[in-house]
Amino acid sequence: MTSLTAAAPRPALRHRLAERGIDRTLLLMLPGIVAIAALFCYPFVYGLGLSFQPAKGGVLGAYRAFFSDSFSAGTIGTTFGLAIPSSLINVGLSVPISYRMRGDFRGKRLLLALLVVPITLGTVLTAEGILEFFGPVGWFNLTLQKLGLVGAGHPLKLINDYWGVLFSLIISGFPFAFLLTHSYLSGIHPALEKAAATLGAGWWQRFRFITFPLLLPGLLTTFCLTFVLSFSVFPSAMMVGDPDGKTHVISIEAYEQALQNFDYPQGCADAMVMTGLMLAVIGLAMGVRALFYTGSTGGKG
C-alpha cells in the first residue's frame, strides 16, 4: 500500500526544461543574438547616450537645438512627405498585381522575375538610371518633346527635385511590397472565394468582402516595411534629389551634423528623433492592425 501511494519520481531538470521549450536547440539562436547585440543594440545604446552629452545646452541641448532650428525641424515634414506617399503607392500598386499573379498563366515566372529585378540593382544604380531617363536630355523628356507636349528648351524637371527621389523610392521599394503582399495573398485559401462565387458574388464583391479584409493585416505590415525603407532614404535624396532644399531629409541632417560638422551628439540626437518617429508610425500601424482579423486563413503562404 505504501508503494502505491508513494509520489512519482521527479523528472530530471533537463526534461522539465524541455517541456517548457528550453533545450540545446536554443543554442542555435546564440550567434544571432550576439550579432544583434554587437551590430544593433550596442551602437543604438551608445548613440542614445551620446545624444545626451552635447557640448552646450545641458542634457537635452541637442534635442532642443534640433527642434528650435526651423531648417532642421523641417526635415521631419520633408521626410514624411516622401515616405508616406511612396509607401502608399508601393502598397497600392502591389495589391492588384499580386491579386492577378495568384493564378497560373504563361510567362508568370518571367513576369515575377522582372518585378523583383529592382532589388538586385541597388539604390545607386537605380538613381543613375533615373538621372539618365528623366534628365533634361533623357528619353522621357525627348519623347515628350517629340510628341509636342513640352517645348524644346523647357524639359520637365524630374531630377534634382522631389520627384526624382519619389521615383527612386517607388522603384526600389515596390519589389519588397509586392513580395510581401503576394505572400499574404497566397495565405488566403482560394476555397473562400470559390464558396462566395457559388452564392453569386462577383469578383469585386469577393475581393471587397472576403479577400481585402483578410489581406488588410498583411498590408499594414507591408506598409510598415516600405515606410521604414522610405523614411531612412539617404542615397536617393543625395543623388537625384535636392539635398540642400526640397529633399533635405532627416537622415541627411544627421549625416551633416555628425560627419561634416563633426558634432556627434547632435547627429545622434537627430538619428534618435528619426528612430522615434519611425517607431511611432509603426506602433500606430500595428495598433490598427490589431483591430482586424489576424488568425489563420487556410492558405499556403
Brief rundown of the structure:
This protein has helices at 2-5, 13-19, 30-51, 61-68, 70-100, 108-134, 139-146, 162-186, 190-198, 203-231, 235-239, 250-260, 264-289. By secondary structure, it is mostly helical. The N and C termini lie far apart (57 Å).
Structure description:
The protein is mainly alpha-helical and 301 residues long. Helices cover 70% and strands 0% of the residues. It has 13 helices and no strands. The protein has helices spanning 2-5, 13-19, 30-51, 61-68, 70-100, 108-134, 139-146, 162-186, 190-198, 203-231, 235-239, 250-260, 264-289. The longest helix is centred in the first third of the chain and has 31 residues, at 70-100.
Q: Which SSEs are present, and which pair or pack?
A:
Layout: H1 2-5, H2 13-19, H3 30-51, H4 61-68, H5 70-100, H6 108-134, H7 139-146, H8 162-186, H9 190-198, H10 203-231, H11 235-239, H12 250-260, H13 264-289
User: Which percent band covers the strand fraction?
Assistant: under 5%
- Any low-confidence stretches, pLDDT <50, length ≥5? none
Spell the H/E element sequence.
HHHHHHHHHHHHH
Helical content band: over 70%
Number of H/I helices: 13
Through-space gap between termini: 57 Å
- Shape annotation: flat
Provide the residue-averaged pLDDT. 87
Structural class: mainly alpha
Which sheet architecture does the biggest sheet show?
A: none
Extended strand count: 0
Radius of gyration: 26 Å
